Amino acid sequence: MDLIQQLINTKYLKDPNIIKAFQTIKRKDFILDENEEVAECNAPLAIGFGQTISQPLTVAFMMELLDLKPGQKVLDIGFGSGWASAILAEIVGKTGKVFSIERIPELAEFGISNIRKYGFIKSDRITVKVGDGSKGMPEQAPFDRIHVGAAAFKIPNNLLEQLAIGGKLVIPEGQDTQDIVLVERISKDEYSKKRFPGFSFVPLIEENKSLS
Questions:
Q1: 209 assigned to some structural domain
Q2: Is residue 206 a part of any domain in this protein?
Q3: Which of 22, 34, 102, 140 lies in disulfide reach of 108, CB 3.0 to 4.6 Å?
């Protein structure tokens, strides 16, 4: 049984648009050559600089929580290999847009080279930036959805403020192990939060004060 079918059978993949994106955007195109034989393994894989491409189960879970729709404007923080950014771009479609941030310049180059395989940069469906993801991308805010692929000790205020009203953010929060937190912005000053414990992510380097 292939990896995508496993994720469908275990209910981690449910949305037809997300399933199609996983089928279209091949994980093998976003890993190091040395890991090609384990591209379909449901586990994180090293991509250098102390970073990983996330476990497919975890990526699927976060994508489902985001409840993505075609035409949405999405911020992807810690794009690393570029896999999640490419999946996001495939889901939001030609009328949507993904803005991606990676803090490690050499890793960003790796991710950009992978994203280019699908033409998303040339077609302007993904815009990439090297920088501190905890600061978000205020010049492009607000965002309908924000996906964070690294763990913050606390959710940065910057990201909450850059979320559109009605928008959703998924972010790992915690130190040794993390909760994946789904945040929805209800109004200018009101947010709802739902927690899903038991995950492990590389850390998000963030310097900003956060909401508790």
A1: no
A2: no
A3: 102
Tokens of 158: 């910057």
| Gyration radius from the chain CA atoms | 16
- Domain span at 33: 3-199
54 included as an active-site residue? yes
Spatial distance between the Cα atoms of 198 and 82, rounded to a whole number of angstroms: 24
Within a domain: 192:
yes
> pLDDT tens for residues 96-130?
999 999 999 999 999 999 999 999 999 999 999 99
Provide the domain count of the chain: 1
Query: What are the tens digits of pLDDT across the range 177-198?
Result: 899 999 999 999 999 999 999 8
Using a cut of 0.85, tell me whether the model's pTM lies above it: yes
d(CA 43, CA 31): 12
pLDDT of residue 1: 60
Give me the catalytic one of 54, 81, 100, 134. Answer: 54
Q: What is the CATH number of the domain that holds 31?
A: 3.40.50.150
Inter-residue contact 51 to 31 (CB < 8 Å): no
Rounded-to-integer distance, Cα 147 and Cα 169, Å? 6
Place of tokens 């929805």: 184
> Domain for residue 121, yes or no?
yes
CA distance 94 to 192: 30
